[in-house]
Design goal:
Length: 702
């Protein structure tokens, strides 16, 4: 549950200080105070610093090692000492690699105190305490002098300060400061350089995550305001596992272009603001909707070691003739290195641009210290135009996540809801809607109902008012901003919800609809009429790495890092988290099973529910997780699911709804299972405080 605030309340005799955190329960909508360990904030920060998926990236680790060894050997060949500086050392892995490669001196810095202490312990446990000097500071605060943090400047820099946007973690200022204050001239930097690639594409599917479209069902029921259609969208990059985007959902209009190159070894070229224009010839005609972006790193000065974050259809390890075999791309995607720390990115163009095959266009890229953005122009250019970073000015992109915008544009989902609304709505219908940003409530108004719409969030409320005005529904829709203004039971005859709430993180938290509807007599008809929490035992191909312990990594014992993160995660994390599973392949190891079904036509009962069961494993595999979702029964005939879009088959890959996030329970201990195994599960629901608890374990039938 999201933390709102914390306050130090009291000190208890003969025990640690306690703090109380205020948590907003997403089901009840009630803020409650919970007693926590005095270091709760610390544990949250440590748990969030976990980057085990990066350390599980063997290719990354290996190529850093090769390039680091080459740099150290080169300095020794030149008759110089190899004095290494490791900025942002984390666990100390790169520093220990430098020691193993024979560096003469190694200075590592780490500003995050818990991680710095952990690194010191790891370095000591691996026998390198006398080789590595660890400084508990940011690199920009380090000093070089006889009595300073470094007695002399380093001549090799190794660091990993990159994110999905390459420069989003402040890489430019970090490298520039290092050259100015911490490195000798002609120092070797690992990695040596980085290249940003951009590919222009046409894709209505990708666009669905960016701009809210009209809802049509025979006729336009809800039209999107022009301000939303013209809005550039959110400034934040849309990071995505592009290799998992079905190849038939986008058309590359141009070959990938190397649009920016950063020479980390040359401080004069590390500029905070640049703009670049490329003349590019389209390979097919179409409408340019977005830019796919990724980057690669040349790890060494001889450009012999390349680390690429390209999607499968452009990855250098995939042969060109095989890239054209679209039927094999899914299989090939499994063969390239998986990275959750360095995904690919989607940048939405400020406006859609038609392009014609073989007629050159201008692909323009911009960046500041932390971010990129792009523009596409037809015709010749006298000079590169200035273009500010896109920002949302329509409220919708700030109010709603990209996942939610995609859900609003889900035609199949919308058609099901409209089909039910057509059955329910009459000229005498007075509907009360409990959902945030619910365009389907406006569809109900277009079908003839009078609608009360509860919208507590300011930005969502402003967005919905735009839609109401655009569609001429001001006489039929009343937007309510607080519970105090809800209509009386005698004023309504239908309660409706999608359900969706901004405060909900995992799917079952949208049962907030049920709690709100229960304020009214159960005799008032409702849609949806039921909700079933369902689950599936799965084998994730890679997702488990975000929580999996490292143990020994590249020959170094990092178990102290595992302990640090695990203890903090236990104190601050929920066992179930939300993930967009369409991006993370998994295969089913069981049939889907019901955990509990709620009858939403009856009001919430105050009795505690505690149930359990067992599910047979039907396919052998590595059992590392359970996926959890909700099926919503709209009426007796029609349902919508935020889970699989096709019925899962044990042993086969599961296809997930791309417009919701599913719940995931990842096992700490991964089990190899066969048909002799079962999954035991239990579920506790305490309606008074909206508390839900799941528990899963693997057992063996004897």
């Amino acid at each position: 549950m999201p933390k709102v605030a914390f306050t130090l309340i009291r000190s208890l005799p003969k025990r640690n200080m306690s703090i109380f955190t205020q948590n907003l329960n997403p089901l009840t909508g009630i803020a409650t105070w919970e007693e926590r360990d005095q270091y709760y904030d610390y544990h949250q920060e440590v748990a969030r610093s976990a980057f085990a998926d990066m350390l599980h990236d063997h290719e990354r680790n290996e190529k850093y090692y090769i390039a680091l060894k080459a740099a150290i050997d080169k300095k020794h060949w030149m008759g110089e000492e190899a004095n290494v500086l490791d900025i942002g050392t984390g666990t100390g892995l790169l520093s220990m690699m430098a020691a193993k490669c024979g560096a003469d001196t190694i200075t590592a810095c780490e500003a995050f105190e818990p991680m710095a202490n952990c690194a010191a312990q790891i370095i000591r446990e691996n026998g390198y305490a006398d080789k590595i000097k660890l400084i508990h500071k940011r690199s920009t605060k380090m000093t070089v002098s006889k009595d300073g943090d470094m007695s002399k400047r380093a001549n090799i820099l190794v660091t990993e300060v990159f994110d999905t946007e390459l420069i989003g973690e402040g890489a430019l200022s970090t490298f520039r400061h290092a050259h100015e204050e911490l490195l000798e001239k002609n120092s070797i930097v690992v990695p040596h350089s980085g290249t940003v690639w951009a590919q222009v594409v046409e894709s209505s599917k990708v666009c669905a995550w960016n701009r809210v479209k009209s809802i049509k069902n025979g006729r336009t029921l809800v039209d999107a305001p022009s301000a939303i259609q013209a809005c550039s969208g959110a400034a934040a990059v849309h990071d995505m596992q592009l290799s998992r985007l079905p190849r038939n959902t986008f058309v590359p209009l141009m070959p990938p272009q190397p649009i920016f190159r950063f020479d980390w070894s040359d401080k004069e070229r590390l500029l905070n603001n640049e703009k670049v224009s490329l003349r590019v010839q389209p390979i097919t005609s179409g409408t340019a909707h977005a830019i796919f972006m990724w980057w690669d790193l040349n790890m060494d000065t001889d450009n012999q070691v390349l680390l690429s974050c390209a999607p499968v259809w452009e990855h250098p390890s995939v042969p060109d003739d095989v890239k054209e075999d679209t039927s094999r791309l899914q299989e090939l995607a499994d063969s390239i290195p998986w990275r959750d720390h360095w995904m690919q990115a989607v940048y939405y163009l400020p406006e859609e641009v038609p392009v014609t095959r073989d007629i050159e266009v201008n692909l323009i890229g911009y960046h500041d210290e932390y971010s990129f953005w792009f523009k596409l122009l037809n015709g010749p250019l006298d000079k590169i135009p200035d273009c500010p970073m896109p920002v949302c000015n329509c409220f919708a992109h700030v109010a709603y996540s990209r996942t939610r915008i995609g859900q609003l544009n889900d035609t199949i989902r919308n058609e099901k809801y409209v089909q039910v609304l057509r059955k329910k709505i009459t000229p005498k219908s007075v509907c009360l809607c409990f959902s945030d940003g619910c365009l389907l409530a406006l569809a109900a108004a277009s079908l003839g109902a009078k609608v009360f719409l509860l919208e507590k969030n300011l930005l969502s409320r402003r967005t919905m008012k735009m839609f109401v005005r655009e569609n001429g529904l001001t006489e039929r829709v009343r937007i309510i901003k607080s519970d105090d203004n809800l209509p009386k039971a005698c004023e309504i005859n239908f309660i409706f919800g999608e359900p969706y709430f901004l405060s909900s993180i995992v799917p079952w938290e949208n049962l907030r609809f049920w709690f709100l509807a229960s304020r009214y007599p159960s005799s008032i008809p409702r849609t949806p009429i039921a909700a079933t929490i369902k689950a599936l035992v799965v084998e994730f191909k890679d997702l488990q790495k975000i929580r999996a312990p490292l143990g020994v990594c590249e020959g170094f014992n990092l178990s102290s890092f595992d302990k640090l993160v695990q203890v903090s995660s236990d104190k601050s994390d929920n066992p179930e988290e939300a993930q967009p599973l369409w991006e993370y392949p998994c295969k089913a190891l069981s049939q889907p099973f019901d955990i509990i079904k709620f009858d939403l036509t009856q009001n919430v009962n105050t009795e505690r529910i505690e149930i359990s069961g067992e599910v047979p494993i039907l396919n052998k595999g590595s059992c590392n997780g359970v996926a959890i979702w909700v099926d919503w029964q709209l009426d007796l005939d029609i349902s919508v699911s935020c889970g699989p879009i096709e019925n899962p088959v044990p042993g086969k890959r599961v296809s997930w709804d791309p417009y919701t996030r599913q719940g995931v329970h990842l096992f700490r201990k991964i089990s190899d299972v066969t048909k002799q195994n079962t999954l035991s599960w239990s579920f506790i629901f305490i309606p008074q405080n909206g508390k839900m608890e799941f528990d899963f374990s693997i057992s063996t039938n004897v």
